[in-house]
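Our consortium's second objective concerns turning raw sequence data into structural hypotheses that experimental partners can test. To show how far this objective has progressed, the report includes one record in full. It was chosen at random from the queue rather than selected for favorable results. The single chain below, 267 residues long, was entered without modification.
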Amino acid sequence: MKKIFLTTFCMIFIIASTLTGCSDAKYNSETSPHISDVTASGRNEGSESSQYVDVTITFEKAITLGDDPLSNMDITISGESPDYDELTITQSADNALTIAIPVTAITTGNLVIDEKEEDTGYPGILNEDGSACAYPFTCELLIPSGITLTTDDSYSGGGTRVNVEGTWDIRSITWLELLSDDAPVTSQVSDTSELYQDTAIAVHGHDFLLSDETMIAETIAETLTRHFGSSYAFYADGTSVTCEKLDNTDTAQLELKIYTYKTIEEK
């Protein structure tokens, strides 16, 4: 009877250990999955209440997911942690997982992923045979708004012209930089309520469900005028935005671009 009980106990222990997703797996430099990239994008399903940020983490080798894929993972957007119970995690490729994060607005849009407990790795993300968990990493990036700018090379004036493509995916901010001979132009606004990313200014997408490219071009021109209007003139025409210098003796080359950044670091 004791032998039967012991055998049954061992079988239950083995099965239970298997179902935990090998949560006790440690990381090592040779067999652990190492991060190769992280991307983020916004989307909506047509309403204020259906806004999401999709974060995809890609590794250099195939992975398997444990019962808690986000074990030891600390995620923040604009310095705030999401409700982890509301997150949806899928294995989007052999070597990648995607985290769908419900949002209402992302203000600055800075996404940070790091370990909750240092020097632990990510026990919920494993190599194919479950013998090692994902190697420790931290990453930070600016969530794209969905709007891009393309320079109009046919423009021959003394400034620059860009075409607006895309619309806001979610209620977010498009960060713009005005450059003069590759050097950022500093905003002339002293209002402390204004938001900045380094020297980039904020173009707000409050009406993201209603805005089209023409409306966005007008909003960009208005925002640029508020920040730089004493030195430059900005005009919206359809989906294009033109920047011209008020000083005719200024020979600097102007550029208007979307500001973004991404850093990935293994520990």
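The partners drew two points from this record. Confidence is low (pLDDT under 50) at residues 1-22. The first strand starts at residue 35 and ends at 44. Both points have been shared with the crystallography group to help prioritize constructs.
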